[in-house]
Design brief:
Structural class: alpha/beta
Keywords: Membrane, Transmembrane, Transmembrane helix
Protein name: Glycosyltransferase 2-like domain-containing protein
CATH superfamily of one domain: Spore Coat Polysaccharide Biosynthesis Protein SpsA, Chain A
Oligomer: single chain
Pfam families: Glycos_transf_2
Distance between the termini: 49 Å
Mean pLDDT: 93
Helix content: 25-40%
Radius of gyration: 19 Å
CATH architecture of one domain: Alpha-Beta Complex
Number of strands: 9
InterPro entries: Glyco_trans_2-like, Nucleotide-diphossugar_trans
Strand content: 15-25%
CATH topology of one domain: Spore Coat Polysaccharide Biosynthesis Protein SpsA, Chain A
Length: 296
Amino acid sequence: MKTMSDVPEVSIVVSNYNSSDLINGALESVVAYGGDVVWDCMVLDDASTDGGFALVDEKYKKDPRFLFVQNEKNVGFSALNVALDRMRGTYLMTLDTDAKIWPGTLRALLTFMETHPEAGAATGNLHYPSGNIQNYYRRHMTPLVCFYTTVPGRFIDKYFLGLRHYNSYHLTDLDTTRVFEIEMAPVACLMLRREALGSEIMDPRFRMFIDVDLCRRIYDRGYKIFLVPDAKATHIKTASFGKMSIKKFDRQYYDGLKIYLKKFFPASYPLMVVVLWIDQILRAFLKSTVGRAPMR
């Protein structure tokens, strides 16, 4: 029988901001489907205004495997950084409040990480509540990739290049039935090797692009990121971002992208600032005239 004296194989970190009605679902999935993995779980509330931990079932608050941490001030995803020192697990795993793991997921990810030392992180197949698979994986963001997500770039790619860059970035050829190196994975259900993280999980400068930055840093430290098909989770997706106004979302998107480009591609940064400024103008024009803009 597993006890809290055991060193956890995996420390799970659930971070919540204004998705408090979904926390119980995430925690229930961990308890129900943790299987034979020795785990503990930190639940962070980042100064939510929708009830926070008041909506969490008492059975989880009384379970010694759970640690609840309340932030008095909203600091964004960098709240996860406290888990590096406060959690004891050999591996860390981020789990969104709007995600629920399936049976066997923890064991599949743990086994993969233990048998693939080159893996800095591993994720599973993410499914919508309908059961359909989410294509939520990407190649690394670079200045060239960034250009082809803009309105001028999408026009060139669509009408002259057969969506070559869009398909490459979005991994449209991804075979979700086999192990696949994916470069960029969301933090919805992501197991992490401590040695691949350095001094922090999340860069506190980011409000958006946190997973893009995290995955880039993992590769820069000499590790890779993989999709493990036997691991699965249901993910509502945008449960928190979906509550954000379009104006605020766009502002955080461009702010995060600029921080990322300046951090990893400083030589290209001045040019990319101009490119993104043009993209913002064109997108605003298209939305006001035809009611929509190209998908990024």
